[in-house]
Design a protein that fits this description.
Layout (H helix, E strand, L loop, with lengths): L3 E5 L3 E7 L2 E9 L3 H14 L5 E8 L5 E5 L9 H10 L5 E8 L6 H19 L2 E15 L3 H10 L3 E7 L3 E8 L4 H11 L5 E11 L2
Antiparallel strand pairs: 1-7, 2-3, 3-6, 4-5, 4-6, 7-9, 7-10, 8-9
Length: about 210
Amino acid sequence: MDEIYSSVQALTTVQIKIEGSRFIADVFPVLTEEDAKEKLDTIRKKYFDATHHCFAYVIGVEKKIVRYSDDGEPSGTAGVKIHSSLQAKNLSDVLLVVTRYFGGTKLGVGGLGRAYFESAENVIDQATIISKALIQEMQIAFPFAETNPVMNIIHSHKLKIAATNYSDERSILTLYILPSQSTSVRDLFVNATRGSSEISFGEKKTVNWQ
């Protein structure tokens, strides 16, 4: 099964006030757990005088790396709520931090949970959402005379060209395709070029898929 999921394009920040408390939500794109921890440290330094820095992050195609923290708030009122907001949008490769400046009025367990979830939802709604996918690299080398049939397949199947190179007599394209397409697309190219193309497969990796 192909793995396609959503992420955020860039850092986005949203701020709300509830009963005097200020909640600052920052959502980041991240690729590794180390990246998430570095960005979390950046937020802690930026808002060094804040009461709490609650967060959640989800990383990877299969979403196997998941961490969240209430950072001193009552258990279950912050980190899990932020994580729920990421789950609701099928987001991965994302860190979401909600920083709280206490305003003097206690919100109660229910009020806190709603405040953190609302903060997380608001920043996700304001962020630019992108699609990401686990892809298979494919390289095809073919004679210049076979350019039209090769490009027709690329356009009709919406394949992504990652790189283009040329030798004296051949074009060499690096394509990004979904793993489920590997066999069928290879066969299409072989037939369309009457066996004159050379096809090889490279690594699988995660890329933006828009």
